[in-house]
């Protein structure tokens, strides 16, 4: 199924979703599952299966990721999960922000829970300070919780980014977090944050049951 979201037209009888800046309409129906997108004037946010991205787009995103995080020791030393989905926000055909989603069944205090993992939230330097990443993250929560049926979203981040995500409704958890690496099960020692559609949770132990994101 493709969701096309456009600037709201009152005569259409459809569900309306609020972004932090715009009112948009969800028009349901085209039969496919490879891409979700909406257009806001010249801006567009697309939600695509990672495997369906063109080699050129993947190379561009890899370049941005390496430039942003490639020099960080923990990034270099860790084996990371491959995304299931990629969110791209473009303006005049230029990528102004993007991030990835990993679908995973994790264990929260031993209980299986479907999680949407968020990683590599990046706005290229020329486009920073305009709120693009906040808009993209806020605008895709419906997709995370309603379309993917995730119980919570989870990200792993540096200290400096905590205030940014706090402003978007994310909260830190002081959980023991386990990840998988080629050498075996490891303890994740950096920050873990959650976004919940309802009440915040405080699991003592989170097992990602796979590589981190």
From TrEMBL:
<dbReference type="InterPro" id="IPR016181">
    <property type="entry name" value="Acyl_CoA_acyltransferase"/>
</dbReference>
<dbReference type="GO" id="GO:0016740">
    <property type="term" value="F:transferase activity"/>
</dbReference>
<dbReference type="Pfam" id="PF13527">
    <property type="entry name" value="Acetyltransf_9"/>
</dbReference>
<keyword id="KW-0808">Transferase</keyword>
<protein>
    <submittedName>
        <fullName>GNAT family N-acetyltransferase</fullName>
    </submittedName>
</protein>
């Amino acid at each position: 199924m493709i969701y096309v979201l456009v600037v709201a037209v009152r005569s259409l009888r459809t569900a309306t979703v609020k972004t932090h800046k715009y009112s948009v309409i969800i028009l349901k129906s085209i039969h496919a599952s490879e891409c979700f997108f909406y257009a806001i004037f010249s801006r567009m946010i697309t939600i695509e299966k990672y495997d369906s991205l063109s080699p050129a787009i993947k190379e561009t995103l890899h370049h941005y990721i390496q430039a942003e995080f490639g020099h960080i020791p923990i990034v270099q030393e860790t084996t990371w999960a491959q995304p299931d989905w990629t969110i791209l926000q473009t303006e005049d055909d230029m990528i102004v922000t993007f991030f990835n989603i990993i679908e995973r069944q994790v264990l929260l205090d031993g209980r299986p829970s479907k999680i949407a993992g968020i990683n590599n939230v990046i706005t290229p330097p020329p486009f920073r300070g305009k709120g693009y990443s906040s808009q993209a993250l806020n605008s895709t929560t419906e997709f995370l919780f309603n379309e993917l049926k995730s119980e919570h979203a989870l990200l792993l981040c540096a200290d400096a980014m905590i205030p940014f995500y706090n402003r978007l409704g994310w909260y830190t958890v002081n959980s023991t977090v386990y990840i998988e690496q080629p050498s075996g099960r490891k303890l994740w020692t950096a920050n873990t944050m959650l976004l919940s559609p309802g009440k915040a949770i405080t699991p003592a132990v989170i097992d990602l049951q796979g590589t981190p994101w």
